Amino acid sequence: DAARSGGVIAMSAGNHAPALAYHGARLGIPVTIVMPRHTPNAKVEQTKVFGAEVFLHGDRFAETLTYTQGLAEDRGLFLVHPFEDDAVIAGQGTLGLEILEQAPDVDTVIVPVGGGGLLAGTSVAVRARSSDIALVGVQADRFRAAVDAFEGREPNRGPSGTIAEGIAVDGPGATAMDLLRRNVDRMVAVSESDIERAIFVLLEFEKTVTEGAGAAALAAVIADSSIAVGKTVLVLSGGNIDMMILSSVLQRGLVRSRRLVRIAVEIPDLPGALGELTQRLGALDSNIVDIVHQRAFGASTVRATLVELVLQMRGEEQVGAVVGALREAGYEVRLDQ
């Protein structure tokens, strides 16, 4: 009752923040949330919309946690830890029950891991039913403390930035880690580029918007398909991605899939030469997205000029055809890889 009247506090850059804010509003309990400074605005606003007071502090989770603990003590607030809490872990474990109910013949379950609470709870529920289902945890390579602990290594602190900020935790909870060691078969870490690819693939083929942490399970399969043994469930744990980040991911995905390419073409510095080049590109069915006409930089002679173009393509095959046709027509072409 004292906690209900005084209010609760939590630190989170993941689902814990809006979830606590939502239930606080529903139950009439004041909620304070502390997020790392660089938390995407979409998550901040999604938490504020439920009436929570939000503070932004710290570049890493450990700094945010320390600030939160001090704020809780100063204000007399009850701390609801996002993963080192038995009740929270049990609640997260209901995900395992849902998986078993909806896919009783599942062979492998792959779950994103930050502090470890979601996989810990899920593992308890799954292991109560079967010892044969493979359980795999996934972390971002820049925040792989749970992977290192699971494999018996000292945690290696990487760079602070990651697209998977929802699982960017400096270290797993002790309770969660104990459950992971007992129940989980394998832990893996995935690169930033694989997470980006997973976000792109989910949006393009499944029409599903996920944040970096939410796409980590698919990223693991993209990096190593052997972990998806038999009927596999991938837990997509969140979709609160900032629009600017999503826009960048989509643009970079188009570049990776060769649907956006950048080329540099040297042309004579003569009237009509640029028009002739653009006409050739149009005849080759390649759309010009961006063009820069460089007269002072890069050309081999004062009588030539360099044209840099970003072209919209259908993929690798068309890129090869366009570059080949331009070279056959006598142009010097550089293709940015």
The low-confidence runs, each spanning 5 or more residues with pLDDT under 50, are none
CATH topology of the largest domain, by name, is Rossmann fold
Global outline: elongated
Question: How many individual domains?
Answer: 3
Mean model confidence by pLDDT: 94
State the major sheet: 4 strands, parallel
Give the neighbour order of strands across the main sheet. Answer: 3-2-1-4
Give helix % range: 40-55%
Query: Number of helical runs?
Result: 14
Supply the CATH class of the largest domain: Alpha Beta
By secondary-structure content and strand pairing, the structural class works out as: alpha/beta
The second-level CATH architecture of the largest domain is: 3-Layer(aba) Sandwich
Describe this structure in words.
The chain is of the alpha/beta class and 337 residues long. The protein has 3 domains: 2-81, Rossmann fold (3-Layer(aba) Sandwich), CATH 3.40.50; 87-253, 3-Layer(aba) Sandwich (Rossmann fold), CATH 3.40.50.1100; 258-335, ACT domain (Alpha-Beta Plaits, 2-Layer Sandwich). The chain has helices spanning 2-6, 16-27, 41-48, 61-75, 86-92, 94-102, 117-129, 145-150, 174-183, 192-205, 216-223, 243-256, 273-283, 316-328; strands at residues 8-11, 31-35, 53-56, 78-79, 108-112, 134-140, 186-190, 232-234, 260-268, 287-294, 304-312, 332-335. A 4-stranded parallel sheet has the order 3-2-1-4, sandwiched between helices. The chain has a 4-stranded parallel sheet with strand order 7-6-5-8. Strands 10-11-9-12 form a 4-stranded antiparallel sheet. Helix 6 (94-102) packs across helix 7, helix 7 (117-129) packs parallel to helix 9 (174-183) and helix 10 (192-205) crosses helix 12. The mean pLDDT is 94.
